[in-house]
User: What shape does this take?
Amino acid sequence: MTLLLVLALISAVITFGMSVVVYKLAMRYKLYPTIRERDVHTRPTPRLGGVAIFLGILVALGVSWALSSQFGVLGLIFSDMGPIFAILGAALLIVILGVVDDLWDLDWMTKLAGQFVAAGLVAWLGVQIYSLPINGLTVGSPIMSIIITLFAIVLVMNAINFIDGLDGLVAGVALIANGTFLIYTYLLQREISPQNYFSLAGVIAAILVGACAGFLPLNWHPAKMFMGDAGALLIGLLMATSAISVTGTINPEALQTLGKSSLVPAFIPIILPFAVLVVPLLDFGLAVIRRLRAGKSPFSADRKHLHHRLLDMGHTHLHAVLIFYAWTAVLSIGCLLFFFDPYWMAIVFLAVGLVVCTAFTLAPLSRRKANEAVAELAPAGSEEARETARFDQLDVASEQTPVGVRQAAPSAPAAPAAPADKETP
Assistant: This one.
C-alpha cells in the first residue's frame, strides 16, 4: 500500500506543477473560450487542465514502470505491455480530442466517434469484460465482449463529462470514488493473492487519486482553470478501465476463499463501480431522457443538469459541490463496507447517510417555504415585510405582470387586446 501511496503522491505533485505551467501559458496566450450561456462562471477561464492531468498520470505511470524492476510484484503488471500501451494511446487520443473541443467546439458526432475509437483501442488490446461474476456467467463471444466493453467505457466517459459544470466537482467526486476503489482493489488483491498486493486497477486508481488531488487546488471555487472535456473524458476513461480490469477478469469462485458467510463479496466487483459512479450515471440518464423527449440530440447542451438544479433550488456553489461529494462518499463507502462482516454496519451506514444527504439536498426548499410563510404574514410596510418581500409569491407575481397590462375595474368591461403583431397605441 505504501508504494501505491507514493505513486499517488508523485502524480499529485506533477499534476499540480503542470497545472500551474499550463495555466500561465493559457493566460499569456489567451487560450480560453468565450463564456457560454449555460456556464456558471462569469470570467474567461482556461479549460486545458486535462493536459496537466494527463502529464501527471503519464509521469506517475512511467515511474511505476521504472520501479517494476526493483519490485517484483509490481513487475507482474508490466510483464504484458499491451494493455499499458493501449491505455496510454487511448488516453492521448482522448486528450487531443478534448483539447480541440475545448478550444474550438467540435460537434457531438465527432466527439462520440473519437470516444469509440479510444474505447476500441483499449478493448482490442486486452482490457475487456471477459466475464460477469454473476453465478459464473461468461460473456458469450469475443465480439460480444468487445461490444460490451466499448459501450461501458463510452458510457462512463460521458457520465463523468456531464457533471463537469461546477468548480471542483469532477475532481472531488473522482478523488472520492477512486480512493474508495483503490482501497477495495487492495483488499481484494490481498485476500486472493497474499503474495502480490498490486494490480493494474489499483495502480490506475492510485494515480488517478493523485492527479485529481493535484489539480483540485487550481480548480477549487473560484476556479483558475477547468479540466475541460480533455480532463473529464480522460478521468472517465481511466475509471472505466480500472473497473473493467477488476470486474471483467475476477473469478467468482476465487472470492469464496475469503471465508465470508454469504455470496455478497462476489457481487461487489459489479456493485462498487456503479456505486462510485451512481451520481454521474444518474445525471447522464436524466439528461438523455430529457433531451430525447424534447426532440433534441442526447448530447446537446443545456442548463438542467443536477448541479444546475441544486443552484436553482437555492444552494450556493460550495454547498452544491459538497452535496455531490457527500452522495458519492455515502454510496461508495457504504458499498465497500459490504466487504466486511457483519453486513449490518454497511446497511446502517447507507441508511443514515442517505437520510442525511437527502435532508441537506432538500433543505433550501424547507427554508423557502418558511420564508414564504413569514413574508405573507408580515404586516404591510414593516421592516420584516421589506426584508422578506422577495419570498412573497403574490408580490412576485404582480411584479412579473407585463408592462402596459392593467387589471380592468370591476364595473367596466375590459378593453380589447391589441393584435400581437402590432404596436399598442
Summary: The chain has a mean pLDDT of 79. The longest helix spans residues 344-377. Residues 109 and 299 are 9 Å apart (CA to CA).
